[in-house]
Amino acid sequence: MSTASVANHDTSAHDHHDHEHHGNFVTTYLFTTDHKMIGKQFLISGIFWALIGGLLSILFRLQLGFPDMSLEFLRPILGGWLDDAGHLDPTFYLALVTMHGTIMVFFVLTAGLSGTFSNYLIPLQIGARDMASGFMNMLSFWFFFMAGVLMFISLFIPTGPAAGGWVVYPPLSALEQAIPGSGLGMTLWLTSMTLFIASQLLGGINYITTVINLRTKGMSFSRLPLTIWAFFLTAVIGLLSFPVLVAAALLLIFDRSFGTSFYLSDIYINGEALPNTGGSPVLYQHLFWFLGHPEVYIVLLPALGITSEVIATNSRKPIFGYKAMIISMLGITILSFIVWAHHMFVSGMNPFLGSIFMFLTLIIAVPSAVKVFNYLTTLWRGNLIFTPAMLFSIGLVSFFISGGLTGIFLGNSAIDIQLHDTYFVVAHFHLVMGSASFFGLLAGIYHWFPKMFGRMMDEKLGYIHFWLTFVGVYMVFFPMHYIGIAGFPRRYYSWTNFDFANMYTDLNMFVSAAAIITFAAQFIFLFNFFYSMYRGRKASLNPWRSTTLEWTTPLYPGHGNWPGEIPTVYRWPYDYSKPGAEEDFIPQTVPLSATPESNLPHEQEQVKLEMEIMKDEEEGLVANESKH
Amino acid sequence: MEHELKYIDLVEQPISMHAKKFALWLFMVTVVMIFAAMTSAYIVRQSEGNWLEYDLPQIFWLTSGIVILSSVFLQYGYYSAKKDNMLGLKIGLAGAVILGIAFLVGQWYSWVALVDEEVFFVGNPSGSFLYVFTGLHALHLISGVIFLIIVLISSFRYQIHSKAMVRMEMATTYWHFLGGLWLYLFMFLLLNH
Asked: Which residues pair with A576 in a beta bridge?
């Protein structure tokens, strides 16, 4: 009887599947509501933006490393932004820094990372047909797309894109007469970010709803893969912090376009006194960093989740401290909301308040260290398989340690007086947040590429890509610590005019050269990615011998993911190398009653219950059938 | 880890509620966060001095009454729908819509009162904040009124009854939330003025 009902399901699902194939180009690739395709859309746009963001950084690295060089050969791209001697225009330098930050933080590491993997993996790993609302999910992508279009246009307007830093502090960003970038470029920036936030909120509401409501049978919260925990908590952080950025941006828009004085007070510009009175620029900093700091974890947590999954799979060991991982992620989530003022130690804030925020900041070291410890102990004595994804995950752990340690320095309000807004800060967050998250993104692509496209990426190219990038990142950011301690301020067009700075010219050249090599190495990845999409070796159903649900789907899952019924989950996702088991992994879909040889004593108890339940269900099915 | 897994997991579906209702709650969380940011910005800014003092428009008492009354009407409509009392449902919904629009008109007159007091949107942030609070809330309330009108139309098509309550429940939740949000803002202004 039960087989008959399954067969029925099969045929109906198959019809459904066939129907999907009739979808035309527009419904399949553009306005799709399939979470897998939306994830891929985010991925491709993320790659596009990563190239633009990387290219911008190469441009300003050329200026910093080789200030006397003529950039004449870039005139076809830069046009009027070069002066007669072929040097970069100083105001355009500011725009480059601003756009690099905005693009990398928001478009690549927020939308490109959690947009791709939350969309792609949540339904597949929790056992759902799709997101809670496919339509909202589609809107989420197209809002992001429109945000991208506006930001892209702003790169090409005569006054240049926004140039007040990615944090767009007023009054610089609020007054059009301050710098060219505060004109139309800033307006476009604000509009684009508003659309971006709408996209993130639509996505986030969907992720949370899906994780809470659409888990398959048996998939309790204590059986969720750590990736899903990470995506879930990321979405929660986004849901709570992005609205605050809306509030900050709204007041900034009123100041810019309607003449209010929320952030502006007593300003003289070009010899003219502005009428604004009573505003407070520090108010903006509070509002901005209330988003800005959680944003760091929005960027980092998905990467950490991906790493947990990849490291456990490729060490052939259960993740060490599953529960400790969840608790530390929860801890990071909560703490991320009460540390924002450590970005403002030198803003004239009350020093007493500063020391409170210092203590809260240092507490974050505890859950972070727990996570690092768990990664290392998972690797310890594991049967390590060095796939490219595994290498990138280990690279992430390395950056997380080396970048995290400098965070302890920066979190101290006294040391921060010397280090604030120097290259030390730049080095710190590029390692711990930028490179670490970027490596998480790459690890995710290498690991789930076979599921996304049904083919394998080339491993040798992956290894070359990894070593060039890994060494390159350290070559770029390690020297920056020294430059920063020496007192070099960030965002400055040129500082070789100062004697103390002169002796670091060589180091800057070195950094720029390393940056160019690292950027060039990414084209190996690009080639590998697009080549393997069409010509790669065909993947097997479960190439990494992983336990999670996404590997139980067909090679090319249709809209709905599983033909027939959604599998039921009987165990947690980290049953690797269980003593007594035949294979070194047991998928989540294998019932305990099927593995008596490897069950632990308490699991043996559960088997009895499991049998009873199965019997009940069988009877239930029979009863249902006879009713018809 | 595994010790704590209750085997009940196997049979029962995981905790879940209606996905759309849940999404509505999450949306309300984002609205709460916007207003939490705005009101804390108000407090931070106020503590820095150079703060213009003025009287709150008296009409806020009236509009607060109106918004409470509209919630009462809607709740009556909700109960009526549960009992399949179609007339009561329509009266409740229509009453809530009319009172909602009356509330918006009242908020407009609060701006008129502010202008009479020479408190303008452009000027000391103390006044600007009041315009932002009321304006942003009104914007959300307009979305609530549109939602109610949609539900009202579907009630005339007999699409809302005791067996089809999801939309009505969502509209009621959202409307009570918006009313509560206004009462919070008003109390906040009374206490921090």
From this structure: A585
Asked if the Cβ–Cβ distance from B44 to A136 is below 8 Å, we say no
**Exposed (0-12), middle (13-18) or buried (19+): which is A351, by Cβ within 10 Å?**
exposed
Asked whether residue B15 is assigned to any structural domain, the reply reads: no
For residue A453, pLDDT over 70 is answered with yes
C-beta atoms of A132 and B19 within 8 A: yes
pLDDT in tens, A32-91: 899 999 999 999 999 999 999 999 999 999 999 998 888 889 888 888 899 888 899 999
Please state the rounded mean pLDDT for residues A246-264: 93
Residues of chain B positioned with their CB less than 8 A from the CB of A278: 50-52, 123-126
Compare CB distances from A602 to B3, B10, B27 and report the shortest one's residue.
B3
Average pLDDT over residues B62-68: 97
Residue B110: CATH number of its domain: 1.20.120.80
Minimal Cα–Cα distance from A591 to chain B, Å? 10
Asked whether the whole model's pTM tops 0.80, one would answer: yes
B187: in domain: yes
- For residue A364, the one-letter residue type is I
Residue to substitute from A280, A288, A337, interface B, most B β-carbons within 10 A: A280
Q: Do A251 and B41 touch (CB under 8 A)?
A: yes
What whole-number distance in Å separates Cα of residue A244 and Cα of residue A239? 10
Total count of domains within chain B: 1
Q: Kindly determine whether residue B5 and residue A223, on different chains, have CB atoms separated by under 8 Å.
A: yes
- The whole domain housing B155 covers 68-193
Chain A with chain B: Cβ pairs closer than 8 A = 141
CA distance B17 to A241: 25
pLDDT in tens, B131-140: 999 999 999 9
Contact B1 A323 (CB under 8 A): yes
Helix then strand then coil, % of chain A, to nearest 5: 70, 0, 30
